[in-house]
Protein 1
Amino acid sequence: MSWFEKVETISRGEMLELVHKAAEEARRRICANPKKVLLLPPDITRAHSGSGWIVEEFYKIFSKEAEVYVIPTLGQHLPHTPEQNRWMFGSIPEERILKHDWRNGVKTIGEVPADFVKEVSHGKADWAIPVCVNRTLLEGGWDLIINVGHVVPHEVLGFANHNKNYFIGLGGKPMICASHMMAACCGIENNLGRLITPLRACYNRAQEQYLSHLPDFFFEVVMAYDDQGELQHIGAFVGDDLDTYLNAAKLSRERNITIVPPLKKVVAVMQGNEFYSTWVANKAIYRTRMAMADGGELLIIAPGLKRFGEQEEVDKLIRAYGYSGTENVMKLWRTEPVLQDLTHGTAHLIHGSSEGRFKITYAPGHLSKEEVESVCFGYADLAETLKRYDPAKMKTGFNTMPDGEEVYYISTPSAGLWSTKEKIEDRQ
């Protein structure tokens, strides 16, 4: 059982009270007087969840008596700049915020066997997944480790957070690559909104076998839109077991999956201070693809967009091969060494394609028309798009434009999942 839960609308002040309650429980259950504390929040692409100021409060509590460090669980995303850290984590000193290095800062401690991977994926993947995670996590001599995050539908794991912080957020290249390719083979639309996906089953096994000794717990939040279309915290789940995740995911499944009729036109906004690459901005595709009508259009307003991949090598890969559909990417994967080496990037190309079923159009802040079209997306001018679809005037859900065009507007697609009833029910 989780340590405690709160399922109702939670104000910022109430959430901070829960942070203090969690700290007290951690002292009672894990370590009464911790001298070294590690805080593991998500990265800046989930800043809207409040995880930054939640972590800042944990830092204030424990830094009075302990050395406290923060490692944003970046995975292979670019490290935060000092300015981004200040924006997300407030008063936490920059020297206390460490950078995860997914290539050189990790250690392999085991593997999820190939026969287990094959079993849980029903034969769609048949390779071992190396358990390869951050050295500082393993060797830091921590008295207390606190995972903070937002449980929300996710394209790889069904729902984000929990041990995703360890195995993707603090994962090494071998683990991230093997994991993403497995999830892609299982099918993105089969993963989204499932409590236990094949990859989650692998991570649960890896956590139990290799990380059960860690002095850790999870502080997980769930959010939903209120009647005014604003995101609010609606749940907090605190504990050190799988039920903590499952209970949060069940609430997210109930409140974060919106059933809609097939949508001909969707306008989605990826915030300019959080989303700088299609690697993360493509969440707009993942979370709406099950709602899109055949022949429809997804228009993504992305004022911060300035690159495709988070890492230079992945950016080059995306520019070279584009989001050209599963059949083409898998054919190339069998012969192209770079796609075989960077399989997390290969999986990303699969996830980001509509498979020709609907049109994907980007209105980017910093990429040219030629660049966007070269990776198989459509292009729209940002200024013209913002003039027509002004986020300040649009409301979440259906909007009728002055010329009669009907569009479905989503202000923060990364906070939910949209699907037709048939798509969510008729899955493998």
Protein 2
Amino acid sequence: MNLDSMKDILAAARREEKPLWEIIVETDMENRGATREDSFAKMAQAWHAMLDASDSYNGKRRSASGLVGGQGEQMRAYAAAGDPIAGGFAAEVITEALCMGESNACMRRIVAAPTAGACGVMPAVLIPLYRRDNIPEEKMLEAMFVASGIGAVIAYRACIAGASGGCQAEIGSASAMAAGALVTLRGGTPEQVCHAVAMALKNLLGLVCDPIAGLVEVPCVKRNVIGAMNAMAAADMALAGIESRIPVDEVIDAMGDVGRRLPVEFRETALGGLAVTPTGKAVKERMLGKRNKNRTLTIKDARWKLQRTSSSH
């Protein structure tokens, strides 16, 4: 089957009396001509890369712009020293989201889930839960298959790129994927997974993409935090039996429509929103000045080398 709608995946799960992840694994096997072992091995590779990115975080690193770095370490220290308002587990989630987003900005290896700009959302909710509850890796992979199926449906029916649909398509999609994964890990029903996805995506509907100086740093890294917290809220609501009044596929379609209607200024062009605030403009000018200076030095160096080569002959 194709991952064209959550309705179709849900219907297949009911018809065949299988969990959602099983339907998605079988679809992957069919589409790629892969064995079950190959499919799980590929997902395990992504999961291990997430864990490695988390373990290798270094709070001393800074992005080339200097805008990002060290905030994950700050959050970790704050949580360890006091009593975070949202509680210890939520503080870990916030910390993980910041660390992963910073790692992306600092050009470290991350997992695009579904994009690099939204790479912190899924690890932020999955890794702390995995470590706290000692969840078997197989269960984590099953949850990630559910998340990947959700992402595939969103990509097919709407979009997952900020340039196409704004940040709702990146952080929103990642949050929906994470919410579905969390419900799966907690033994929720397929229907509850769909409600969680719908609520998570609805909560971020219309979120614009307005990166300062065109860099995936500000406000992108901190938006990973809100995506992760939103995913937890949506998952808990769904597990409590709260339902989305709008069916999940209709929510996804609405997100796609909103994305197409967003002015170009709010779709990763850095021409609107926070990017054109006085401070946003000042950062851009500083970055342009630094680039031009480096370019000038490079040109001078090239000319000097050319002159030396010519004089030697």
Protein 3
Amino acid sequence: MKYILTIISIIILQCCWGPKEFQLMKKEDNNTVPKVLKGTYQITHLETEDISTHNVTITFNNSTKQVSGFSGCNRFFGSYSIEGNTLKFGDLGSTRMMCEENANSVESKFLKTLNKAHVILFRKDGGFSLFNKKELLLNATKPIVFDNSELEYTASSRGFFKQIIINKKTISTSNQIDSKLAIKNCTDDFWQKITENLKNISIETIPNLEAPSKAFLYDGAAFAKLKITHKGKLYESEPFDHGNPPKAIKNLVKEILSISENIE
């Protein structure tokens, strides 16, 4: 009986939605797709516009059916109701800070989008998409949590050595090969700066990043590497010149070096 109902549901979706929309709406494995809105999500796209750099978030409290978040400029709050694939938001309030025009524009569009939302698709990756009838309104994803991650940066050449190991609790540094690491506490502020940079990186691609220069091959620069351990898996970059990392990890490496200099 369940099989027959599933087939009927698919036929209905195919009749009412075009091929592109059906691909977005078709049900995935019921055992792997989350069915509950819970916790914080990052809004990555409004329709086709990538807004991930604005750090727009939305948090759902499944117990109280309250919603809150950051809309690009202000904090917002309100209520919501959900039944099956139907999601509706109640009246939303917000703080009233003044921001730059670009942030105001994103915020205005985002809040209007929530008011238009009607259909929700739970995705296998833990995120969701919102629709108004067949119109895709936004995509949201579960932020990656890096609380148990560790980063290690090393650079060395003749007469030069630097090693920095950072996790949520400690920052360990050494300026001499085989010397004992100096260990200090990693403050919440330091770790937040690291994780903000990590969010902008696809860590799975780190082993494949191409070095923009390779002066280290003839002692023209110190030999450098970045290692990130996340969820028990090691992601290690190819060697690059100290001071000239691949573009994708440039800001992260800069932050790691800055933090180590601030504590030394």
Protein 4
Amino acid sequence: MFESLEEIISIEKEKNISFWECIIEDDCKENDISREKAFEKMANMYKVMKQADANYDDKLYSQSGLVGTDGKKIHDARERGELLCGDFIGRVIERAIKMAESNACMKRIVAAPTAGSCGVMPAVFITIQEEKGYSDEEMTKAMYVAAGIGEVIANRAFLAGAAGGCQAEIGSASSMAAGALCFLRGGDGTMIAHAAALAMKSVLGLACDPVAGLVEVPCVKRNVMGAVNAMTASDMAFSGIQSKIPPDEVFDAMRTIGRNMPDDIKETGKGGLAGTPTGIKIKEQIAL
């Protein structure tokens, strides 16, 4: 398992192979499976993401009634040409909301890397494939790039909101998606790493403060922020902008910030938005 992006970049250069190939080689070795089998499993993961997107129910609400149907609202506004962000980013926003709502409504999703952040990668991946015409094979390779970034984050810090706040969930998903986007656009390991770092830097310190302890408010809408943040980080990195703080050190900073966060803003449903008068009122109403 990789402990740093620097290690992956070093192997990429030493062996003259792509970033994603470093990850699949490690995957095959760790799980003792063939390259073909490993690639097939990852391809199926992406297939499930697309199926989950296609199976969104625009009439379904979560059991609490807090979330549901907002994906359709964005869809309708986009169709009417009313979004300031335009059609492309509008589709990213729409998909992020739809997937996160599907999670809250107990429909099938892919935790990427967590259920709470499940809307970020599909929103970015499916929309960019739709826009640019990338093949499923290319998207599967990008999935490996994202997985490699996620592995490093998990080893250096954490992926769970309970451990490090929402920066660990939405932040990690955004970082993974940003790096994968740079790969799809032809970026090397260095560019991929800086895209990941730029995305993570933008959400350092993000609290995990779910109202009533449910992965619904504000979680669903934060998936939108994570997806759009990944797009902007990719654009910056692809333009030649680099993080002044080395990527691996950015992840270390996320770990330190997470450890220093009060428990009330680490998925306990006590602080932040969950602790507001309205947040408390919602919790009491749901408990009735």
